[in-house]
């Protein structure tokens, strides 16, 4: 507040005036207060007069001052209504506007949720309280001077039942076989207040426990229990401990919490997964009669697959694990001797193994040959030890008998004896129990102690009886009497054929068993035919000779031959020889047939030489030359046999003259040419000698050392 005093001033009426000013900031607290002003001077003081006084009542305009009450309201989440009170004082008192805010946000007043809260009715009624209505409420008022919000706020505490959350403190899944302990916790996540006074625990919507569980026998005046309330009275109701968890503990767990606001809703279910083994297994076979080479299915089943339901099966044959079979059924196809065994199966999952089940599978075998008879066999007629053996697998046991040409051979037959051996099963060969039967030929009782080569083939049969599992079986062998080749012959031993013609064919035949194989060879041992027929193409002189037929079978060989006689016209050679002291021409002939005749003539002349000059010595013919003839002639020799006449052979003859006359004509030319050649060779040699001597002389005198020595001399 500021006070100012001004000096006096002269007024028109001749007096003095004095003015004083009081300044201050008006607040709502000055509203309605009276301000007094007093004035005097010395005259009045001297006269002891009362000061002059004037009073002024101040009216201050100010915005609303707002208060709310009560400051805290506690209510349950029900259908009840709550009143929030708001009061104000201001100048002027008339409000122009009013509103409420919650947690700093203006409230939009709707008739279904709120009542009042405006200029006409400032208190606010909140209808049907819910948890969303909880918060800090303030009231705001406005008049013509200004607006103001309440300094305090009303805290509306809405209590509502807790919403809880269940948590399982254990790795999931749990194996029942491990008998572990599991802890469950129930925690309030939403609610007012969050403190839980009780918790209900449910398994699959069935109530397990409500904790704490107090069984007091007496209570005090305030209702508190007295004494021991039982084992579940002082436990932490938020925790549920499951001890030695087994499959009965599996399921969806929920919890429900209670506070002073009441019981809340159940929590979302949490599944406690407990793995446990399947129920005990049972095992059966698809057939009670199991036969070798058929099929059988073993079926392993459980009533309860356990948890998880994804199960596999473990199979044993005897003590051997069958690792590649994991399904509930096992089809064995084909059935073998190994199938005859004890079988065990059990189901398994992640929770463990079921109790096993076992079954014994007995396998039978119908008659079947382990060793049957060959369809055919040839036996050498001189063989001493002859026997036939068959072996039949059959379980149960069967009987074996022998037949010859469809007739049963009795045990009393002196020509035969019988031997029977029983063999145990052989797992490695997949053979069941078997019977081996041998039919022995008593050759010492046969005629000649040997087989008859002329007899027809015989048929021997090994026959088994039925054993109740399958029909009897049989195996038949055809036996032939073998012997080596014999009586080998050819259709013609000598074959005449002219050169460049095709000879007639030759057949080679013989007896023997098994069937004979034939081969023809020439005299060089080269094969020319692989069957019994020798059929040659056009032949020449080189093809003549002996041809051998070789017949063979597995018991031996036999050989015969035929001669191929190739006939041809004569060929000859003509030479100058001395015959019986005279110069003669000798004509040597080569021909087949060798009976030949000779004829001589001079080439270019048609006359035949005088036969008196011709002589013959077998395949040689001679022409005696006339020594009076000195001229050059060409003589021809013609040779003939039964095939024909051959090409003539020729010989040039200079004539029978003195030696020096023989150099005329062609001979003279040859002599002259020879002499010229010799002369040229001599001249060349002389030239070479002269050149060599000249070069030697030059080398001798051109040597510097030698020249220097010569000068010194």
Strands, total number = 58
Mean pLDDT score, rounded? 89
CATH topology of the largest domain: Immunoglobulin-like
The whole-angstrom Rg is 75 Å
Percent helix: under 10%
Q: Enumerate how many helices there are, as a single number.
A: 3
> Uncertain spans, ≥5 residues at pLDDT below 50?
659-665, 700-713
Can you tell me the number of structural domains?
6
- State the CATH class of the largest domain: Mainly Beta
**Form type:** elongated
**N- to C-terminal distance:** 172 Å
Structural account:
The protein is mainly beta and 713 residues long. It contains three helices and 58 strands. It is elongated, with a radius of gyration of 75 Å.
Distinctive features:
single chain, 713 residues, mainly beta, Immunoglobulin-like, 6 domains, eight-stranded mixed sheet, 49% strand, elongated, disordered C terminus
């Amino acid at each position: 507040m500021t006070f100012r005093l001004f000096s006096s001033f002269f007024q028109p009426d001749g007096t003095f005036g004095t003015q004083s000013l009081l300044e201050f900031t008006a607040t709502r607290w000055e509203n309605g207060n009276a301000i007094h002003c007093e004035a005097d001077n010395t005259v009045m003081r001297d006269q002891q007069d009362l000061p002059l006084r004037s009073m002024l009542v101040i009216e201050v305009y100010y915005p609303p001052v707002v208060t709310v009450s009560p400051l805290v309201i506690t209510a349950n989440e029900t259908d009840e209504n709550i009143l929030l009170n708001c009061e104000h004082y201001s100048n002027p008192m008339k409000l122009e506007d009013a509103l409420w805010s919650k947690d700093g946000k203006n409230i939009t007043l709707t008739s279904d949720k709120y009542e009042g809260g405006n200029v006409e009715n400032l208190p606010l009624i909140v209808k049907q309280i819910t948890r969303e209505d909880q918060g800090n409420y303030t009231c705001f008022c406005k008049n013509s001077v200004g607006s103001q919000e309440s300094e305090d706020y009303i805290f509306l505490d809405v209590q509502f039942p807790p919403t809880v959350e269940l948590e399982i403190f254990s790795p999931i899944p749990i194996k029942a076989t491990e008998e572990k302990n599991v802890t469950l916790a129930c925690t309030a996540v939403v609610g007012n207040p969050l403190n839980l006074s009780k918790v209900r625990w449910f398994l699959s919507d069935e109530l397990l426990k409500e904790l704490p569980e107090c069984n007091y026998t007496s209570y005090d005046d305030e209702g508190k229990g007295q004494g021991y309330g039982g084992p579940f009275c002082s436990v932490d109701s938020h925790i549920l401990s499951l001890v030695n968890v087994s499959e009965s503990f599996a399921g969806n767990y929920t919890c429900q919490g209670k506070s002073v606001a009441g019981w809340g809703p159940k929590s979302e279910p949490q599944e406690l997964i407990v793995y446990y083994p399947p129920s005990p297994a049972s095992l059966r076979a698809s057939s009670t009669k199991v036969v070798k080479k058929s099929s059988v299915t073993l079926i392993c089943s459980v009533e309860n697959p356990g948890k998880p339901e994804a199960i596999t099966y473990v199979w044993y044959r005897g003590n051997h694990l069958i690792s590649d079979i994991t399904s509930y059924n096992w089809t064995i196809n084909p059935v073998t001797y190994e199938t005859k065994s004890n079988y065990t199966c059990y189901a398994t999952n992640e929770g463990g193994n079921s109790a096993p089940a076992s079954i014994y599978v007995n396998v039978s075998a119908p008659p079947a040959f382990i060793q049957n008879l060959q369809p055919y066999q040839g036996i050498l007629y001189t063989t001493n030890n002859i026997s036939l053996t068959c072996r039949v697998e059959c379980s149960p046991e069967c009987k074996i008998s022998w037949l010859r040409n469809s007739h049963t051979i009795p045990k009393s037959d002196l020509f035969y004896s019988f031997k029977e051996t029983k063999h145990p099963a052989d797992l490695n060969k997949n053979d069941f129990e078997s019977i081996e039967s041998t039919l022995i030929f008593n050759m010492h009782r046969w005629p000649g102690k040997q087989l008859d080569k002329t007899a027809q083939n015989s048929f021997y049969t090994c026959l088994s009886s039925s054993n109740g599992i399958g029909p009897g079986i049989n195996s038949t062998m055809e036996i032939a009497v073998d012997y080596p080749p014999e009586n080998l012959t050819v259709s013609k031993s000598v074959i005449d054929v002219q050169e460049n013609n095709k000879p007639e064919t030759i057949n080679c035949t013989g007896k023997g068993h098994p069937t004979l194989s034939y081969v023809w060879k020439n005299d060089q041992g080269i094969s020319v035919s692989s069957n019994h027929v020798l059929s040659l193409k056009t032949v020449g002189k080189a093809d003549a000779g002996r041809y051998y037929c070789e017949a063979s079978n597995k018991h031996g060989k036999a050989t015969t031959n035929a001669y191929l006689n190739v006939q041809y016209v004569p060929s000859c050679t003509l030479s100058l020889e001395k015959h019986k002291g005279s110069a003669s021409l000798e004509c040597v002939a080569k021909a087949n047939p060798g009976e030949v005749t000779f004829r001589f003539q001079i080439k270019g002349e048609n006359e035949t030489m005088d036969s008196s000059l011709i002589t013959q010595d077998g395949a040689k013919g001679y022409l005696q030359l006339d020594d009076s003839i000195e001229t050059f002639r060409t003589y021809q020799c013609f040779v003939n046999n039964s095939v024909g006449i051959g090409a003539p052979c020729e010989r040039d003859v200079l004539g029978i003259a003195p030696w020096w006359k023989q150099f005329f004509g062609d001979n003279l030319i040859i002599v002259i040419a020879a002499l010229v050649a010799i002369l040229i060779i001599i001249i060349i040699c002389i030239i070479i000698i002269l050149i060599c001597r000249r070069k030697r002389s030059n080398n001798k005198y051109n040597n510097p050392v030698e020249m220097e020595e010569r000068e010194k001399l």
